[in-house]
Amino acid sequence: MKNEVDLFDKSLAMAEDYEEQLAKNQKKSDALILKDEYDQVVGFILKDELFGIDILNVEEIIKPVDFTYVPNTKEFVMGVINLRGKIIPIVDLRLKFGLVKKPIDIESRIIVAHMDEYTVGFIVDKIERVYYIEKKSIEPTPPNIPQTIEKYVRGVGKMDNKIMTLLNIENLLKEGGGLN
């Protein structure tokens, strides 16, 4: 029997009592408060900036694997991988956003995101953690966002000591994830 490699990054496992703690802080005992008042997002780093993707669109997070190059694709499409029988395009978000390419290193991860019929793996510099962001602290996209990424941003989440750029995964997947 061939040894299987576990690609899932277990370092992102959250404390199970985190939702309960948030609910207590809001002086409500119902854990459903989170769905109505908070967005749960996977935070990741690209060139020292914090970005986030809604956790409902994240299928899994894996360590980088070898991919197969596909000719005649856009420069940000690194290739495709076969993930448990499903062919998934791999996009380097740095290149997609017009940033300088960075070699894949030990902290790099692939976020496998999906929406409707689209599934794409995005290479990011580093995964931070899962964040709960109050919906009332999410503001519209500021006017100073570079035009190269403006259509992929749905807003900015303000936290105690951080600001996170929240990505519009629908636009990112539909426009940026295909092989064309």
How are the SSEs placed, and which strands pair?
Blueprint: H1 18-25, H2 33-37, E1 38-46, E2 49-54, E3 58-62, E4 77-83, E5 86-92, H3 93-96, E6 109-115, E7 118-124, E8 126-134, E9 138-139, H4 147-150, E10 153-158, E11 163-167, H5 169-176
Parallel strand pairs: 2-11, 5-7
Antiparallel strand pairs: 1-2, 1-8, 3-6, 4-5, 6-7, 9-10, 10-11
Helix content: 10-25%
The tally of helices reads 5
Placed side by side, the strands forming the largest sheet appear as 8-1-2-11-10-9
- The CATH superfamily label reads CheA-289, Domain 4
Q: pLDDT below 50 for ≥5 consecutive residues: which ranges? A: 1-16
Total beta-strand segments = 11
H/E order of the elements? Answer: HHEEEEEHEEEEHEEH
Q: Give the termini separation.
A: 38 Å
Top CATH class = Mainly Beta
Name the CATH architecture: Beta Barrel
Radius of gyration using CA atoms only: 17 Å
Structure commentary:
The protein has a single domain (41-176), classed as CheA-289, Domain 4 (OB fold (Dihydrolipoamide Acetyltransferase, E2P), Beta Barrel), CATH 2.40.50. Helix content is 16%, strand content 39%. It has five helices and eleven strands. The chain has a six-stranded mixed beta sheet. A hairpin with a 2-residue loop joins strand 4 and strand 5. The longest helix has 8 residues, at 18-25. 25% of the residues are buried. Residues 1-16 have low confidence and may be disordered.
